[in-house]
Every structure is written in C-alpha cells, then in structure tokens.
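Hi R.,

Here's the chain you asked about this morning:
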Amino acid sequence: MFGSIVVGTDGSDTAKEAVRQAIELARSVGAELLLVSAYQPVSRVRVNQEASNAPADVQWMVSAREDVATLLADAAAAAEAAGVPVQTFPRQGDPADAILDVAEERDADLIVVGNKGMTGAKRFLLGSVPNRVSHHAPCSVLIIRTS
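And here is the predicted structure, written out as tokens:
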C-alpha cells in the first residue's frame, strides 16, 4: 500500500500530531518514514557570532540548521522507538517546497501534514503549507485534523 511516507514538521503541536500519526501509519503498513523540516537561511556572520558564544567543545555544532537537526533527531528517535525505518531531510527554504521536493525525489507514496499553519493575512498572501502541498503533491496527501 504505502512503501514510503513523507511527513513535514516544524515542531508545533500540529506537526507533532502529524508525525505521531505518520509513525503509527508507517508502523502498521511497514513503510519507511521520511521526516522533513525546513529552515530559513541565516547569515554567516550570525552563525559565526553564535558559535563564538558557545563553549569551545560544541562550537562546531553551531550552524544555520542546528534547530532543525535537533527537531528531526527527536522525531526520528520516536519513529525508531516504534520500529519504523526513518530518514531525515533538513531543507533550506519554504516548508511546502521542502516537503514536495523530498516526496518527488524519493518517489513517496504518501505525504502527511497537519491541518494548521499560518493564519490571517500571512496565510491569505502566501497560502498554507497543507493547501500548497495538497495542490502540488506527486502522490496522495493525508491532512491530519488537530482541532
């Protein structure tokens, strides 16, 4: 049925629920989970400044995507604890584009996203991630209702 499932996360409660349900679905059908999280570019000056404020033994870990790497590692640990094979994909740029790119690159069978994202004017101008994903997905999309 589903060999690979892409799920996007930004660490929000909605995304955590989407990840939780994607893990359960992947476990029940024997699918691989492909976890995706997007990050925005940060100037090299800011990264260097952050690194210089960190203890010397961890300065090498400071990067533009360190928060995303931690977020993905936590979600991957939950999948592994459930016995689900998992890969992580930190991607620079727009969240919807990141999810769609991984789904296309990996020939995914399903994309799972939470139903909430931006609200108000920002949502009107840019569109929500679930809306953009559902309209441009190369495969089926499951939108998890969290409210």
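One quick note: Confidence is low (pLDDT under 50) at residues 58-63, 118-126.

Cheers,
M.
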